[in-house]
Amino acid sequence: MHGSLAAQPLTGPGRPDSGGVNAVTEIRRCPRCQARLSRSNPDRLCGPCRRAVGPDDRRSARLAALALPPVEDPAVQDAGPDLGAILRRFRADMRLTQQDLSDLLGFSQPYVSLLERGKRTIRDVTQLRRIARLLGLPEAAVGLLPFAA
């Protein structure tokens, strides 16, 4: 009886051929620096190499073709200082992904997600002015008072 069990291949969780929880998966590496890529990284480059190379050519071409007109939608302009709602509405109106918006603003996609959900806020006036300028919004739309000289 022991002989018949020993002849069968071992399968189950943790065995390479079982597809279980600890199954061996392919190790992906960055082609530029050979760093090991995280399973959660959908890009083919690691973070430092992506920042060094710049945004993906398809994304940059799409953003370059996207002529951002000044937003004249009163719902966006009068949204108040809730930056997350403004970003989410702008992204929906312009049919952008969070990655496209993050490339446009110079932030990471997870940071844009946190901003949209209200988990992070931006209080730096310079950053808020830059965001308003890049999105074509009046500064008051992102919660800034007009500059008084």
Please tell me about this protein's structure:
- It is a single chain.
- This protein is mainly alpha-helical and 149 residues long.
- The chain has helices at 2-7, 47-53, 57-65, 74-77, 83-94, 98-105, 109-116, 125-135.
- Residues 4-8, 65-70 and 75-80 have low confidence and may be disordered.
Instruction: Compute the number of strand runs.
Output: 0
Distance between the termini: 93 Å
Structural class: mainly alpha
In quaternary terms, these chains amount to single chain
How does the SSE layout of this entry go?
Layout: H1 2-7, H2 47-53, H3 57-65, H4 74-77, H5 83-94, H6 98-105, H7 109-116, H8 125-135
Helix pairs in contact: 5-7, 6-7
Tags for this entry?
149 residues; mainly alpha; 8 helices
Give a quick summary of the entry.
The protein has helices at residues 2-7, 47-53, 57-65, 74-77, 83-94, 98-105, 109-116, 125-135. It is mainly α and 149 residues long.
